[in-house]
Amino acid sequence: MPVCINAGQVRLGRFSESGRIYLLTVVVDQRQPFFVDWQLGRLVVRELRQAQEEGWGDFLTWVVMPDHMHCLVQLRDKTLAELMCRIKSRSSLAVNQALGRRGRMWQKGYHDRAVRREDDVKALARYVVANPIRAGLVTRVHDYPLWDACWL
């Protein structure tokens, strides 16, 4: 596992709480649309699922867009920084290997929002999975290959 510099440091105002649900967004470096190729997007999906299987967090819903990713995750025993470092580093390695390239794939950092009330969860989940529709990529979410929700 790669060592993430500053992974233990929390951004001012950021708080990682085991059991809390967070909406996370991470963007591809320079907004390169790597995941127009859905097979590359599946490499990111594989890392999300692997992180869940290893007990890092429970991914309630996620969508991998051409140049960014959103996920709604309930933390387990790791911090936000540790979880994001793991997902970003391992998915970068997989995508870079598939493309025969080197270098950064994701922008530095990520955006997070702690979910405060239980009723926010489903509204945020709808927001996440509707991203491909709002972006004009599909007219029905079921036509988009890179999303999932635990309620289905």
From TrEMBL:
List this protein's GO terms for biological process: DNA transposition
Q: Name one GO molecular function term.
A: transposase activity
Q: Which Pfam families match?
A: Y1_Tnp (PF01797)
Residues forming the Transposase IS200-like domain are 17-131
> InterPro entries given for it?
RAYT_transposase, Transposase_17, Transposase_17_sf
Q: SMART domains from the entry?
A: Y1_Tnp
PANTHER family named among the record's database cross-references: REP-ASSOCIATED TYROSINE TRANSPOSASE
Protein's recorded name: REP element-mobilizing transposase RayT
